[in-house]
Amino acid sequence: MTALERLYNAAVVPVVVLDDAADAVPTAKALLAGGVDVMEITFRTAAAADSITAVAKECPDMLVGAGTVITLEQCKKAVACGAKFIVSPGYSEEVVSWCVENNVAITPGCVTPTEIMAAMSHGLKVVKFFPANVYGGLSAMKALSGPFGGIKFIPTGGVNDKNLAEYISAPFIHAVGGSWLCAKADIAAHNFDKITSLCKEARKTALGFEIAHVGVNAGDAEESLAVCRALDAAFGFGVKEGNSSNFAGSGVEVMKSPYLGKNGHIAVKTNSIPRAAAELAKNGFTLDESTAKYKGEKMVAVYLKQEFGGFAVVDAPQRLLPRAEAVFKEIASDNLHPRGRVADVLHAVPQVQRQRRKAVVLVVENKLGVLLVDDVPDAVQYLLGACVRLLCRLALLFVVHDAPPIVLFRILPLWWDNLD
């Protein structure tokens, strides 16, 4: 596995500032205990070189890299000390060229098209975006990913536990970097348990494991439909008939014939199947590649080889709901580029600016609708509570169309069929 693959699987890259090299190994061990096996030790202090040497020597499970590398001299010194990857705050032709020539992973800071093109000329596909909160954050990276679709970003600066989910769910993000996981003050105070706890929470957020539904094996189509109708009669879940299975609500799938798992399967959502696979492998679980389903070249679902209580487990991508405020900002800055009939709705916005009520845009199956509401937070809270099954379907379909699941703006109620 390459250094860049390790960074992707880790999802979070702790930016570590050490004043005392003696704290390097305890910090690395605290990160490892929290499930994070990469760290970027910055050259902001005189202890950087010795710290990298100590971690490289005493923590073989840790992928240690050097950050804030500004000069070629620092770069060579870091690699000599055992750094497996180099991170620079800006683009240095000299540093990038040397790293490429010597097969050292490098993520230079690139925030402009010119810098990205310079990185691409050396074959680089992952760059640092720093400081992210100053140069436009997700909106800027989304805009840059348009002409530079093959480039992935590692944003640093302004990323924290509160917005990690929003950043890590973006398709153009390779990983995120930040010092909140191991603050300089916590290292100095030897608050290593706190560092471990923060890492565990970050990994949990990045992986996004969540039960999507439970699948039950039925003997045939007639039995499958009977089970769903019984659940609907008891709990009002509703019945949705499909080709190979039927659903009772969105939480129970009943197969029309026995499939994987003695009793059925448990579908678990995740933000990234590759990251999930790496995490599961650490815990002794493996994917059954023969069951993988793809959309283009991207794996979208796969079963584990192991069963749990007679149930197989299938991993599928999670669709996270972005914050309404962030979505509104994207629309206001004209950085949203939806396709199909969603575009028609957005184009209608200028014509109804005088509307005083706000709206929540929803997609159910293949229908798009706009609900006028007086109070958006109350409406969203209701939808998340009483109609959570509905929102699960909305999120999935909106992602397919490159549009967010919840959009806030002023608009008249509109409906369309056949969104595809």
Describe this structure in words.
The protein has 420 residues and is of the alpha/beta class. The protein is built from 16 helices and 20 strands. It has helices spanning 3-10, 24-33, 48-58, 72-81, 93-101, 113-120, 137-145, 164-168, 184-188, 192-207, 221-235, 273-282, 324-332, 341-348, 376-386, 388-400, and strands at residues 12-16, 38-42, 63-67, 85-88, 105-108, 126-129, 152-155, 176-178, 210-217, 239-241, 245-248, 252-255, 264-270, 287-295, 298-308, 311-317, 358-364, 367-373, 408-409, 415-416. The strands form 5 sheets. An 8-stranded mixed beta sheet has the order 10-11-12-9-13-16-15-14, covered by helices on one side. A 4-stranded parallel beta sheet has the order 3-2-1-8, with helices on both faces. Strand 15 (298-308) and strand 16 form a beta hairpin. Helix 2 packs across helix 10 and helix 15 crosses helix 16 (388-400). The longest helix has 16 residues, at 192-207. The protein is elongated, with a radius of gyration of 24 Å. The chain starts with a helix and ends with a strand.
